[in-house]
Amino acid sequence: MKKVAVIILNWxxxxxxxxxxxxxxxxxxxxxxxxVVADNGSTDESLAVLKQEFPSVRVIALDQNYxxxxxxxxxxxxxxxxxxxxLNSDVRTPEHWLDPMLDYMEAHPEVGAVxxxxxxxxxxxxxxxxxxxxxxxxxxxxxxYCRGRIFDSVEMDNGQYDGEPRSIVWASGACLMCRTQLYxxxxxxxxxxxxxxxxxxxxxxxILSGSTVMMLPTSRVYHLGGASLxxxxxxxxxxxxxxxxxxxxxxxxxxxxxxxxxVRRLLDTLAWGMAIAKFHWGDARAIIKAHADFRKMRRxxxxxxxxxxxxxxxxxxxxxxxxxxxRRRKVF
Length: 332
Known about the structure:
This protein is α/β, with parallel strands linked by helices. The protein has 11 helices and 13 strands.
C-alpha cells in the first residue's frame, strides 16, 4: 500500500484532465503515492479519457455529482492510504512537489494538514494563486484571507513568504495534504457546504482537535482556478456568503458566535448595497438567498466548541476590511 493517495475530483472535466493530469502522473513519485481520480457522475467523455489515456490512474466512479465535499468523502471512504492529498483537477504539479510534504508530515506527528505554496497557472512571472497563496487565515470578523492575497489584491511571489514552514488557519482545497485517519475522526468535509470554504471548516476542526495546519514553502504547485465556477458567478457569491456564515456559526462558542454574526449581517448588508450600486443584480440576490438559507441550515448545527480560534492566533485579530479599504493595506 502506498503511503499517499493523491485524489483528484472530476466532474465533466475531460479537457482539464487532458491538460493537467499528465503533470500529476509524471511528477508524482510512484514509490510513495497512488494517483486517484474520483469522478462525480460525469456525463462527458471523462471516464473514457481516463481509461484510454491514463491507465495507471485509479478511477473511483461515483454515480452522481455529490459536490466537492461529499465527493471527496466518498472517495476517501474507499481508500486506505496513511495520507490523502486533495488536489484540484486544474492543478499543474512540478517535479518533487509531493516529497517535501510527506517528509515533513512524517517528521512532525503533531501536524494534521499541510499545503504547498500555491501559484497561479497561466500567467507570466510567479504570481500567487487566489485560492490559498502562501497559507490562509481568518480575520476578527470571519473573513478569509491569505499571505499573498487579500480580497482581490494578489501579490507576485518574490520569496517574501519563503523560509521556515508556518502555522496557518486553513490550507487551500486546491492542494491539501492531511492524515487520512484524522480526516475521518474530525468528520471529513461538511457535505452541506457542497463547495467553497469547506476546506476552511475542515482545517478549523483539525486545529480544534489539537493538531496544527502548516504551509510548506519548499513545495509548490500551479493552480488555474475558476474551473468549476468562474469568479463573479452569482452561484459562487451565494456559496461563499452562505458557507462563511455556517463556518462561523458551527466553529465558534455559541455566545461569541451569535455576537459576531450580528456584526456580519451588518457588513454583508453593506456588501449587498455595493452590489446594487454596481448593478450586480445576480450578486445582490445571491447575498439575500445566502442569509435566508443560512437561517434554515444553522439549526442542523447544535454542538459548538469552547475555544475561540479567532482569539488564539495573532493573525486572526486583524480587521482586513478596515485595513484594506480605509488604510489601503494590500499585502499581508
